[in-house]
Amino acid sequence: MSDAPFRVILRMEIKPGMEADFERTWLEIGDAVISHPANLGQWLCRGTEDTSIYYIVSDWVDEELFREFEHSDGHLEHRKKLHPFRSGGSMDTMTVVAHLPGQHPGRVAPERIRVLLFHRAADRDAIAAAYHQVSEDLAGTPGLVSNEFLGSVHDSTEFLVMSEWTDQAAFDRWEQGASHKDSTAALRPFQDSRREPSFGVYRVQARY
Fold first, then answer.
1. Record's Gene3D superfamilies (predicted)?
2. Gap between the terminal Cα atoms of the chain
3. Per residue in 151-201, pLDDT tens?
């Protein structure tokens, strides 16, 4: 499989006077796209001559995974929220065949973060069931990339739940949201009381 990203460019004609509402709505629901594991990022651009014309550019791992997202319920809901603002538009797709980076260092994109939750349980089946319940409740959470349930090879009662998030802001929005406590309630009885706090948030510093 080629490493070249699959690029999608949407041209959107926005109804006059609704530009600001469109931009605000796009930002509010953008996590529905960038939280997808196959998405490499997206950009909203406004025309300089006709400011009611917008271009949405998104990069994907490959076309197959983009098409899977395109036909998903999440994408249909995303489109439904943007539809009231548009009067017309079109979509082009392409594969990037070459990239020549400029010399300006630019801004460094925020690194993904890892959240580690430490648990202790004598009954592995009980904590595993709680993990699966929480994971089902968190499915589709904006910004959540993935999570894993790990068991210590040295201590059969020690467990770790590690989740990956697109960035700190996405994690903070979820953690401070109304659904946070309810969605993680099943795992709370297993928190490792020996640790204070029983969790850690880490930003990626290097990668090979």
1. 3.30.70.100
2. 20
3. 998 899 999 999 999 888 889 889 888 888 889 999 999 999 888 788 888
The tens digit of pLDDT for each residue in 23-80 reads: 999 998 888 888 888 988 899 999 888 889 999 999 998 999 999 999 998 888 888 9
Query: Whole-model pTM?
Result: 0.53
Task: Write down the architecture of domain 6-95 according to CATH.
Answer: 2-Layer Sandwich (3.30)
What is the spatial distance between Cα 141 and Cα 119, in angstroms, rounded to a whole number? 22
Residue 123 CB neighbour total at 10 angstroms: 10
Residue 75's Cα: distance from chain center in Å? 13
125 is written with which tokens?
A: 């089946």
Domain boundaries of the chain, sorted by first residue: 6-95, 113-203
The four Cα atoms 55, 7, 42, 92 give a dihedral, to 10 degrees, of 20
**Amino acid at the residue 21:** D
The answer regarding whether domain 113-203 maps to CATH 3.30.70.100 reads yes
How far from 195 is each of 104, 156, 184, 192, 200, CA to CA, in Å? 44, 17, 18, 6, 10
